[in-house]
């Protein structure tokens, strides 16, 4: 489930919001109602990355 939070709210409740993300929630951070960032569990983010192996000398996520 995706929830929209303001920058101010995200700043004030970062620990709580990150706990919710760990439980599978997805947050969209907005400035003046305009979405500017998405915070999601790392396991979901990895699914969005290309499956090609990293270039030589690059670390993988």
UniProtKB/TrEMBL annotation:
Protein name: Antitoxin
Record-linked SUPFAM superfamilies: YefM-like
Role this protein plays: Antitoxin component of a type II toxin-antitoxin (TA) system.
InterPro entries per record: Antitoxin_Phd/YefM (IPR006442), YefM-like_sf (IPR036165)
Family per record: Belongs to the phD/YefM antitoxin family.
Pfam family name, one: PhdYeFM_antitox
Organism: Thiocapsa imhoffii
């Amino acid at each position: 489930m995706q929830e929209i939070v303001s920058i101010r709210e995200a700043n004030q409740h970062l620990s709580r919001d990150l706990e919710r993300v760990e439980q599978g929630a997805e947050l969209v951070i907005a400035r003046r109602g305009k979405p500017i960032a998405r915070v999601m569990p790392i396991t979901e983010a990895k699914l969005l990355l290309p499956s090609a192996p990293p270039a030589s000398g690059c670390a993988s996520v």
